[in-house]
Design a protein that fits this description.
Elements (H helix, E strand, L loop, with lengths): L1 H27 L12 E6 L5 E8 L7 E6 L4 E5 L17 E6 L4 E10 L6 E6 L9 E5 L12 E5 L5 E3 L13 E2 L1 E3 L6 E7 L5
Antiparallel strand pairs: 1-4, 1-13, 2-3, 3-7, 3-11, 4-5, 5-6, 5-8, 6-7, 7-12, 8-9, 10-12
């Protein structure tokens, strides 16, 4: 009957969905892909709000007037790169204490901050997306929250701005138009906000 066929179809759908979910979970943590590596494009989730670090081609009206950096629910990918002084090899695992740059894949901007600019809503230190590598303002240090010494997928970490020694943070202040619903991102003194990387395209050392 039609009812029986619908029930069978639902059962097949549920079974296939379960297999796909299991496959995705297996790929996510397959051996050799458990750690954040140089060259990987990762989505960074703010642990307090469960929102993702993102950026857009909408500039601040004050401060640096560079691209705004915010939190939003969508995956937004940042490529992990070394610095000019300390380059890294594609696929090399990132250890705590390493200096990195984060390159926003969609806008082609580097995550950076500068002590002379203030965030629009909380008046903390501004965080922006800049088009060119700057004089140290785009370098971040990875600080672990656990006892491991390498940055593992799903692990909570702090990201410290090297030049100012402040930490990547979101106060939860919400923007209006044209980025309504997005949350402000800033840099503050102290380890208030932690971040974790799970989703992404991971590079493996060949």
């Amino acid at each position: 009957s039609a009812t029986t066929l619908q029930a069978m179809a639902r059962a097949v759908f549920v079974a296939v969905a379960a297999l796909l979910l299991a496959a995705n979970e297996a790929v996510a943590y397959t051996s050799g892909y458990e750690y954040i590596t140089c060259g990987s494009a990762i989505a960074l989730k703010h642990s307090n709000t469960q929102q993702n670090l993102g950026s857009q081609d909408i500039t601040y009206g004050t401060g640096s007037q560079e691209n705004s950096v915010t939190l939003n629910p969508n995956d937004d990918y940042w490529q992990v790169m070394g610095t000019e002084d300390r380059p890294c090899i594609r696929g090399q695992e990132i250890s705590y204490g390493n200096e990195i740059r984060l390159f926003h894949s969609r806008t082609g901007r580097f995550l950076r901050s500068a002590s002379q600019h203030h965030s629009p809503l909380s008046n903390e230190q501004e965080v922006s997306g800049g088009s060119e590598p700057s004089t140290g303002n785009d370098i971040w240090l990875v600080a672990g929250k656990d006892t491991q010494y390498k940055w593992k997928r799903g692990a909570q970490v702090y990201l410290q701005h090297k030049a100012s020694r402040k930490y990547l943070h979101s106060s939860g202040h919400q923007y209006g138009m044209p980025i309504a619903g997005h949350l402000e991102v800033s840099a503050v003194t102290g380890k208030i906000s932690s971040w974790r990387a799970e989703n992404g395209i991971y590079a493996k050392l060949e």
